[in-house]
Automatic annotation (TrEMBL):
Protein name as it appears in the record: CLD12 protein
Keywords on record: Cell junction, Membrane, Tight junction, Transmembrane, Transmembrane helix
Electron transport recorded as keyword: no
Gene name for this UniProt entry: Cldn12
Membrane-spanning residues: 6-30, 88-114, 134-156, 168-196
Matches recorded under InterPro entries: Claudin12, Claudin_CS
PANTHER family: CLAUDIN-12
Stored Gene3D superfamilies: 1.20.140.150
Membrane topology, from the record: Multi-pass membrane protein
Compartments in which it is found: Cell junction, Tight junction; Membrane
Family assignment from sequence similarity: Belongs to the claudin family.
Organism: Chloroceryle aenea (American pygmy kingfisher)
Length: 245
């Protein structure tokens, strides 16, 4: 597999990374990180479920979609450690993943539209495709770690709340979306690393992060065969006879 073309692996990695970022955005905005189920023994009243998100809190009666209590200022008064950590971790993970997507896109565009080495005056201003994908893979892996660790911690913290108070707490769908998005980020980084390792063995500077020499020293096109190599075997084996004086 060569590095000089846009491959399905890099395109799939870009699409996977985009889907993972979209999943992180949904997990950040949805108010479904934790449910607190409140039961009543009065037959004239209905049970109440409090949905807790990173930014808002909503309380609903069973069978109703309208919020009886809606708190849009919840993000300023979060009193649960895991949600407070997620308020900082998930946006940071999204920013890291978006930066990786931009690098991946630059690498693909550089591969698709720059077939030769740029001018010597601009050579140091360009990053080659493999360098972009390598750094993007590292950023995707970092974003996965930043997202996955606090998302899994929510599960353990939920068990802690149930032991300390009453078994009325449960984690909601946003936890699964965040963990699935972290898995997508990890899959994206693995794809980019595999592509990078397959291209690194080529005798070219594609694996280097920056150009460091003049363009004349780096030729991305295959070197032309010499005139003698294009001769047929018959022509090569013909002896040269010289006449002695």
């Amino acid at each position: 597999m060569g590095c000089r073309d846009v491959h399905a692996a890099t395109v799939l990695a870009f699409l996977s990374g985009t889907a993972s970022v979209a999943g992180l955005l949904a997990a950040v905005l949805l108010p479904n990180w934790r449910q607190m189920r409140l039961y009543t023994f009065n037959k004239n009243e209905r049970n109440l479920t409090v949905y807790t998100g990173l930014w808002i809190k909503c309380a609903r009666f069973d069978g109703s979609r309208d919020c009886v209590i809606y708190d849009p200022q919840w993000y300023t008064a979060v009193d649960q450690l895991d949600l407070r950590v997620l308020q900082f971790a998930l946006p940071l993970s999204m920013f890291t993943a978006v930066s990786a997507l931009l690098l991946c896109l630059i690498g693909m565009c550089n591969t698709a539209f720059v077939s030769t080495v740029p001018n010597i005056k601009l050579a140091k201003c360009f990053v080659n495709s493999a360098g972009c994908h390598l750094v993007a893979g590292l950023l995707f892996l970092l974003a996965c770690a930043i997202c996955l660790t606090p998302s899994v911690y929510v599960i353990f913290y939920n068990n802690y709340l149930n032991r300390r108070y009453e078994p009325i707490f449960s984690f909601d769908i946003s936890v699964f979306i965040a963990i699935a998005s972290a898995g997508g980020l990890f899959f994206t980084s693995v794809l980019l690393f595999l592509w990078y390792c397959a291209c690194k063995n080529l005798p070219s500077p594609f694996w280097q992060p920056l150009y460091s020499h003049a363009p004349s020293m780096h030729s991305y096109a295959s070197q032309p065969y010499s005139a003698r190599s294009r001769l047929s075997a018959l022509e090569i084996d013909i002896p040269v006879v010289t006449h002695a004086s």
